[in-house]
Design goal:
The protein is built from two helices and no strands. By secondary structure, it is an all-alpha fold.
Length: 46
């Protein structure tokens, strides 16, 4: 699966790494600002 995605990204290796880094940061930001605040009241922590 990762090989398929890597081949579908545009440009050379440097551009592909930049795109992967950007997409990873976007996913982390979405988790941090949307998913985790929604989930926090629903998880009993001690």
């Amino acid at each position: 699966m990762y090989r398929f995605l890597w081949r579908r990204l545009p440009g050379g290796t440097a551009l592909r790494l930049a795109v992967v880094l950007l997409l990873t940061c976007a996913a982390v930001a979405a988790l941090w600002y949307v998913v985790f605040p929604w989930l926090a009241p629903r998880v009993p922590l001690g």
